[in-house]
Amino acid sequence: MTFFVLGIDAATWKVIDSNLGDLRYFGRLKEVCKSDTMVLEQEPLSPLIWCGMFSGAYPSEHGHREFVGGDGDIVKREDIPVDFIWDELDNDFDVRAINVPFVVPTFSFNDDFEAPGFGLPTDPDEWSSELNEVTERSLELLDKDPDVLISVYTSLDRVQHFHWGSSKVLKWYRRLDEKLGELLFDSGFLEEKDNSLIVVSDHGFCSFGEADVQTLPKETENGELEGDHDKNAILMTKNIEFEIKEPQDIYRSIKNRFMG
């Protein structure tokens, strides 16, 4: 039995639901999973949300909002004063995590995964590499039957920041959809009745000018932004009894399953 949390940074129902004819495996997931929208009450900032999702702590407790701290230094895991679910379970359970983007480079636990682009892939080659490498490593880890596996794809965030509203967005959702097929269906993971699955994003997406919170400047060294984060994250669950309403509930659902 494996409890698998699959994060998809920036995934939005706006793209998925309007393109199910092109996204076969997203469609199949919606058939076998309970689907919902997780509306964020916290700022839709990736470091803040992923940190809370796997620590159960609120921003006032973990104090982590940006990849770079007020002193100009990149924030490291040891700078964040909370325990994460993998810390709490590690003594008694086999817990693995790869490519969790609450810090840069992305964080992995009980694995030596090295993310393309340090977890901030910025061009098509790095986007492809991340999709392939996260999928391959996740499949390798699932073969070991861990109690908990946490894996995150981050490339959609960068794609949508720079190409929101263009055909390139759907192109990369299709690429991701293929990987979901390999990881969740072709592998047989969803056929095992005792396995549990959460598919979740840290926020949704919208046009740059519609965002409640501007997460990046309009002009960047990599070009002008077309999109930004909104507060509507995707959520799909299978064999999850715990009610999930906010990011911290992901942590609580895992803890409830293994620690009661």
TrEMBL record:
InterPro entries: Alkaline_phosphatase_core_sf, Phosphodiest/P_Trfase. Pfam families: Phosphodiest. This is Phosphodiesterase of AP superfamily.
